[in-house]
Amino acid sequence: MVPKPIHTTMQCGVTLRPGDTILECIYDLHCQVHNINMQLLTDTNRIRISGMLCCSLLARDAEGMPMLLEKEEGFEVYADPGTSVDNAVLQAQAEPTDCTYHLSSDGTISIQATLLLHGILCPSTRHVCLSELTVDGENQLVRDGDYALKLYYGVENENIWEIAKRCHTSIDAIMDENDLSDEQLTTPGMLFIQIVQ
Fold first, then answer.
1. Which residues pair with 9 in a beta bridge?
2. Beta-sheet strand order (sheet of 66-79)
3. Which of 18, 37, 129, 182 is the most buried (most CB within 10 A)?
4. β-strand partners of 101
5. Quick check: 51 and 14 in contact, CB under 8 A?
6. How far is CA 110 from CA 14, 43, 86, 101, 145, in A?
7. What is the DSSP string of 60-121?
8. Smallest Cα–Cα separation from 51: which of 120, 108, 122, 113?
9. What angle do CA 193, 175, 169 make, to 5 degrees?
10. Could you give the CA distance from residue 168 to residue 161 in angstroms, rounded to a whole number?
């Protein structure tokens, strides 16, 4: 079926508590994600994205000393694909597009990261093509001679599967015996047909 593009954003966050240190200034903030896992939830028709959000914060304390604060925390967010996820295959990636922080009066830093999920969702349907197979043990194939090898003249563009069916052997047996790499003859010629039991 026609693939559907996925392009949606989600929010996830972490909280940093620098302890007794009072931060005076924040210079830079960087967020990245890793160990991403995506799962299609057919019962709610959503995509669950989980992984680890890693934040690095460069700051300065009240005494003017630079500090590097880092925090890694697991997250789990959900996205609505806008189409059915039943029997679908997801080919997508999640990455942070931006991140913001809020420094509260007690020194706690709340970090929010915006994740972008982009890729394609490939819906599919299932069809039963063969529902039953019965082997007729009463009417067995009668060979027309006692031999292990047969000579066959193949014509150009003849299908090996058709030859194997006609000679009651396997495709692999014909291709191996005649050093063929393609399942269709490119030139006419004599073939050795190995009869397999």
1. 116
2. 23-41, 46-61, 66-79
3. 18
4. 111
5. no
6. 6, 33, 37, 5, 85
7. EETTS-EEEEEEEEEEEEEE--SS--TT-EEEEEEEEEEEEEEE-TTS-EEEEEEEEEEEEE
8. 113
9. 45
10. 10
Q: Dihedral of CA 166/169/170/176: which sign?
A: negative
Q: Using the CB atoms, write b or e for 43-69: b if 16+ within 10 Å.
A: eeebbebbbebbbebebebeeeeeeeb
Whether the predicted pLDDT of 149 surpasses 90: no
Please give the average per-residue pLDDT across 121-127, as a whole number. Answer: 82
What is the pLDDT, as a whole number, of residue 152? Answer: 87
Name the 3-class secondary structure at 161.
helix
Do residues 66 and 60 touch, judged by C-beta distance below 8 A? Answer: yes
Are 42 and 48 in contact by the 8 Å Cβ rule? The answer is: no
Q: Which residue type does 57 have?
A: L
Residue 143 has pLDDT above 70, yes or no: no
Which pTM was predicted? 0.58
The CA distance from 2 to 157, in Å, is 33
Q: Give the pair of three-digit tokens for residue 111.
A: 């970090």
Written as six digits, the tokens of 152 are 């066959």
